C-alpha cells in the first residue's frame, strides 16, 4: 500500500461538528444498536487519526479491527475465557486512585446506570461480562504496540486513539475504550493473529438510546491535574 498523499492528509473534506461539540459529546457507550457500521466511515476516521503526532513520526499505533464473523469468533473466545477461565490479568490500581473506581462503579451500576443493587452479585457479574462482548458493538478492535517500544510510544498511541475516537464521534458513532479485554492478552493475540503487546480494546458502533448511554461521569478540578509554574 502506498503512503497517504499530502492532499489526502490535509484536505478538509467535511466539517459537520465543532471540535468542542465532539469533545463534549464523546462519552463511553455501553449499549449498541445491532446495526452494521459502513467500513468507509471507519476508513475516513482512520485517515484523520493518521495525522496524530508521534515520537520521531514513527506512527506506531496499531489497530486490529474485526466485524462480522471475525467479531463473533473473537467475542466467543473471550466470553469462554471470562466465564470459565482464570480472572483477567488487569494491573491493580494503586491505593490512592481506587476511590475513583468506586465512584465510577456507584454511578455505572447505580440508578443512573445499570440500576443493579450492590447486593445483586449475580446481576453485577453479568454486567461486568458485557465488557467481553464489547457491549454488543458490531465493530471491535484492539490497540496494540510493538514490544520493542517504550512508555513514551504508548503516549503516541493514546493521542492517536483520542483523535480516532473524536473522528468517530463526529460521525455519530459511539465508542468505549476497554482495559478489561486486555486482561486476556493470549486470547486476543491468538484470535487477532498478532504478537504485538495489547494496550486496550475499543468498542465501536451506533449508540442505542438507553439510559445507560446517557450516563455522564464527573471530573475533578483542574488544579488536581495541572501545576502552573510562573516564577
Ligand atoms: C484506558 C481506558 C480503559 C478503560 N477501560 C474500560 C473498561 O474496561 N470497561 C469500561 O466499561 N470502561 C472502560 N473505560 C471507560 C472509562 O470508564 C471512562 O472513560 C471514564 O469513566 C470516563 O467516562 P466517559 O468516557 O464516559 O467520559 C476505559 C477508559 C480508558 C481511557
From TrEMBL:
The keyword ATP-binding does not apply. This is Nitroreductase domain-containing protein. CDD domains: PnbA_NfnB-like (cd02136). GO terms for molecular function: oxidoreductase activity. Residues 23-206 form the Nitroreductase domain. Keywords: Flavoprotein, FMN, Oxidoreductase. Belongs to the nitroreductase family. The lineage of its organism: Eukaryota, Fungi, Dikarya, Ascomycota, Pezizomycotina. It comes from the Eukaryota. Its cofactor is FMN. It holds the Pfam family Nitroreductase. InterPro entries: Nitroreductase, Nitroreductase-like.
